[in-house]
Specification:
With about 70 residues, this protein is mainly α. It is built from three helices and no strands. The protein has one domain. Helix 1 runs antiparallel to helix 2 and helix 2 runs antiparallel to helix 3.
């Protein structure tokens, strides 16, 4: 479920709507934690754990680059 929410938030941001960015970052971080802990039994919407990990990490870095510096 987190993967789907993260992908939807990413798609939303790419389309120009940043209203869900903070929530999406939270989803991405939690999903990455679960993948790294080996607690993922289903990888929907991704084909594999490796594909999920790749997208989640790439998307998180993309969002973090969009954040303004303090």
């Amino acid at each position: 479920m987190l993967g789907i929410l993260a992908e939807a938030g990413y798609d939303n941001a790419v389309a120009g709507n940043g209203s869900l960015n903070d929530e999406t970052i939270g989803y991405l971080r939690r999903a990455i934690e679960l993948v790294e802990a080996g607690k993922v039994s289903r990888t929907d919407p991704f084909k594999s754990v490796d594909a999920a990990s790749g997208f989640l990490n790439l998307a998180l870095e993309w969002f973090l680059l969009l954040q303004p510096l303090p």
